[in-house]
Amino acid sequence: MFTQLVKNPLILERYRKGPFAQEREQYLTHLSQRGYGKGRLTGINIQLLAIAQRLRISARKRLTKAEVSEAAGIWMKERRQRSSLPHSLVLAKTDFISIACNWLRFLGWLDEARPALPFANQLDEFLIHLRDDRGLSEATTIHRKRTLEPFFSWLTARGGAIATVTPRDISEFFSASRAHGWARSTISGCVHSLRSFFRYATSRSWCAPDIAATIDKPRLYCHEGLPQGPAWKDVQRLIESVSDENPTHIRNRAVILLLAVYAFRINEVSKLTLDDIDWEAERLHVRRSKLKKVEEYPLATKVGTAILRYLKEVRPSSSRRELFLTLRAPYRPLSAASLGARVGTLVKRLGMKLAHYGPHALRHACATHLLAQGFSLKQIGDHLGHRSAQATRIYAKVDVSSLREVADQTLAGLVECSEPQRQKTQGVVHETLFVPLREVANLGLGDVL
């Protein structure tokens, strides 16, 4: 593998005689088989030699991430003293750590042992109860776990136990949390999770009875929890900002259109696959994370065109069936967190003043816009995939002046159509004309799809 990346005989000899040459070459071959390009492999090859020279690798023990970070610090000091190095050879400290950890992990030499979470057994049993007995979605159980872990860590640090928890302990926890800048809405979510846990803990005789009833929620003002999203004209500006030839923008445009037109949640977008698009029937299938079922939507013209362009011009050739992949090898599906961060960054660049900049703001913008256009709460709820009308009713409280700002905008302003009309498919409403895409077979996409 070295001979494919280095042509100078003297430099090639240096890589061959360096420490752990066989292990370094084995890893480079592995990366090449996963689709890494020559340029990236050349950079990793340079870094691997520096890593092997500075890590105290011993066959008797595995290295920790702290030891890798220490070696990276030594390398950074040497780099500052050698400022004449070409820029192409100067890699960030984070790259050093990342490449080193990935190499050691590949060899089985990285110690990634993590301390057990406090009260892990009780927490796992509670989460299984939420998932299997109560039928809550994976996203909800993950949220419960995330909001309960700070309390369990705090309780462990105090030497406490679930069996000895008192209302005063919980009050002290929230006092400490509030001192660290938690918002009222954050505390409210944590209270909801704690109440749920202690109700289950009481049923299992893990704690004193009626603990859940003593946990009070903070006061949330009547309009504090209203969904806030950008105005529809700002959504149009956001879409226009990713209308150029940049490959990343081409992919982002397809993602943003799915979020704005269909009001999908970001994890629903990340789970879309090539098989979810029925080009012949002009339908799009989405796995609803909370309803735990697949819903069918008509395929909007602009959305279909954006996805087609992404497939033709940007999406790398890969056996993966997920729709949105990374643009650099190794090609892998983009996570919901990664997609959400990209959308949030684009929203902030436009200078919008929002309470939250995540992709969920586009879902709120779509719902608010449909309400302004005169759609009923039932129709909007079906479009959003809400389980009950109560979840949709909150949009009726949105400030009237905000609705007037988008009253002169129509969904047709975002999704072009020659004869706007409302179409219903299994309770889903779209105010647009869906142009046929059956000629997809003639667009050279047969090998992609």
What this model shows, in words?
This protein is mostly helical and 449 residues long. It has 3 domains: 2-111, no CATH class; 120-214, Orthogonal Bundle (DNA polymerase, domain 1); 232-443, hpI Integrase, Chain A (Orthogonal Bundle), CATH 1.10.443.10. Helices cover 52% and strands 6% of the residues. The chain contains 20 helices and 7 strands. It has helices spanning 2-5, 9-17, 21-33, 38-54, 65-81, 93-107, 120-133, 138-157, 167-179, 184-203, 232-240, 247-261, 266-270, 301-314, 336-349, 360-372, 377-384, 389-393, 400-405, 411-414, and strands spanning 63-64, 110-111, 277-278, 283-288, 293-298, 422-425, 428-431. Strands 3-4-5 form a 3-stranded antiparallel sheet, with no helix packed on it. Strands 1-2 form a two-stranded parallel ribbon. The protein has a two-stranded antiparallel ribbon with strand order 6-7. A hairpin with a 4-residue loop joins β3 (277-278) and β4. α5 (65-81) crosses α6 and α7 runs antiparallel to α8 (138-157). It is globular and about 75 Å long. The two termini are 33 Å apart. Residues 85-90, 399-412 and 415-449 have low confidence and may be disordered.
Strand order of the largest sheet: 3-4-5
What fraction of the residues are assigned to beta strands by DSSP? 5-15%
| Count of helix runs | 20
Low-confidence stretches: 85-90, 399-412, 415-449
Shape: globular
Separation of termini? 33 Å
User: Helix-strand pattern, N to C?
Assistant: HHHHEHHEHHHHHHHEEEHHHHHHHEE
